[in-house]
Write a structure and sequence with these properties.
single chain, alpha/beta, Aspartate Aminotransferase, domain 2, Aspartate Aminotransferase, domain 1, 7-stranded mixed β-sheet, binds pyridoxal-5'-phosphate
Length: 405
């Protein structure tokens, strides 16, 4: 069966691997090697000259890593993919690749904190500027585009308020102005959203999250829709900046990726059940979830995502004291940043992931002390809800008592 005819669920299990040339090993072997021995001096010469394919040195490519890259390119409907040692290594590689001194990057209203930090550094050191736009209409995007703009950098859903950016609209406007579109697709995973289908040039992931899905690796992946451009990126930025993945981490992700579709279905199902539960809780005020019909951009979410994914943010009645009391009252749910793991995680953005943003600005973004973010795991939904329910009850009792005192 030719690879092109198989479905993605099958491709993540089989693509890019032929067991008959690997001692019939069912599992993709781990090539834990830094370098490769040439048969003779002439072969080495040919490989360096690009006249013969094959391995040279693991920073330029590794057979285990290559299987992961092929599967990711397939999952994101791209031409080729590159694996990195962290999500931030993928972000920095693509931004270095598309910009030069004097250029401008237009970002969606919210971006990952360290991506913001990187852009600030690029501005200070290399005079590569950036600005933000809600990108909600063509006019709004065009008003934010400058003569020196080279790319649009988008996250959707936006962390932690789950604001949605319309990928079709953004890509249409970018094409009209000859700009590249880079999408950080970490929150949706390639199973739920494929930005290249809407015209994006690059899609990147923190593979640390849903792609690996087991909370034991830090890694990144970048997929592109132009194979030649990606080869260029591999042989310049990736090779010379060097933020590559280790073969062992690639091997773990190959294992995690096999169950991506099964996991994403369950994360999304569990999250949908939790949204209904949270809505019925008197402690909860607002809920932010892309597939909640009350989400202001529900229709756009439906257009570009297959399901709502596993992230829910919600506000509670009360401030920091109540939020922290609630987190401490949980027994099953872990207090941790990161997301996309089998374990349900909760975090408090105002004092954790978004604590470096000045309070005024943070509050404007809707990241108040009342806001909590849940990464819904793969446990039985009854147990996740049960844990929240008992913690809500403790909050009600505790704060009712403190009011009486
Ligand atoms: C975690 C994360 C990153 C950074 O990835 P690392 O693997 O931690 O380097 C980038 N973007 C988003 C949306 C993330 O959640």
């Amino acid at each position: 069966m030719k690879n092109k005819q198989i479905k993605k669920e099958t491709a993540v299990v089989h693509k890019g691997y032929d067991s008959s040339v690997h001692h019939d090993s069912l599992s993709v072997p781990l090539y834990q090697t830094s370098t490769f021995a040439f048969s003779n001096a002439e072969q080495g010469e040919k490989r360096f000259a690009g006249e013969e394919g094959g391995n040279i040195y693991s920073r330029l490519g590794n057979p285990t890593v290559r299987v992961l890259e092929e599967r990711m390119a397939e999952l994101e409907n791209g031409q080729s993919a590159l694996a990195f040692g962290s999500g931030m290594a993928a972000v920095s590689a693509v931004l270095i690749h598309v910009t030069k001194t004097g250029d401008h990057v237009l970002c969606s209203r919210g971006i990952y904190g360290c991506t913001f930090g990187l852009l600030e550094m690029m501005d200070e050191k290399y005079n590569i500027s950036h600005s933000f736009s809600a990108m909600s209409t063509e006019q709004e995007i065009e008003a934010a585009i400058r003569p020196e703009t080279v790319c649009l950098y988008v996250e959707t859903p936006i962390n932690p308020t789950m604001e949605i950016v319309d990928l079709e609209l953004v890509c249409k406007v970018a094409r009209k102005h000859g700009l590249k579109v880079i999408v950080d697709n970490t929150f949706s995973s390639p199973y739920l959203q494929n930005p290249i289908d809407f015209g994006a040039d690059y899609v990147l992931h923190s593979a640390t999250k849903y792609i690996n899905g087991h909370g034991d690796v830090i890694a990144g992946l970048l997929v592109g829709n132009d194979a030649e451009d990606m080869m260029n990126l591999r042989m310049t930025v990736q090779k010379d900046v060097g933020g590559i993945i280790s073969p062992f981490d690639a091997w773990l992700i190959i294992r995690g990726l096999k169950t991506l579709h099964v996991r994403m279905d369950r994360h999304s199902e569990n999250a949908a059940k939790l949204v209904s539960f949270l809505k019925s809780s008197p402690i909860v005020n607002k809920i932010y979830y892309p597939f909640d019909p009350d989400h202001p951009q529900y229709e756009i979410a439906k257009k570009q995502m297959k399901a709502g994914s596993g992230l829910i943010s919600f506000t509670i009645h009360g401030g920091k004291e109540v939020a922290q009391y609630l987190m401490n009252a949980l027994e099953l749910i872990k207090i941790a940043v990161s997301l996309g793991d089998a374990e349900t995680l909760i975090q408090h953005p105002a004092t954790m992931t978004h604590s470096v943003i000045p309070e005024m600005e943070r509050e404007k973004m809707g990241i108040t002390h009342s806001l909590l973010r849940l990464s819904v795991g793969l446990e039985h939904s009854d147990d996740i809800m049960g844990d929240l329910q008992q913690a809500f009850a403790k909050v009600e009792t505790h704060f009712a008592q403190s009011v009486q005192k």
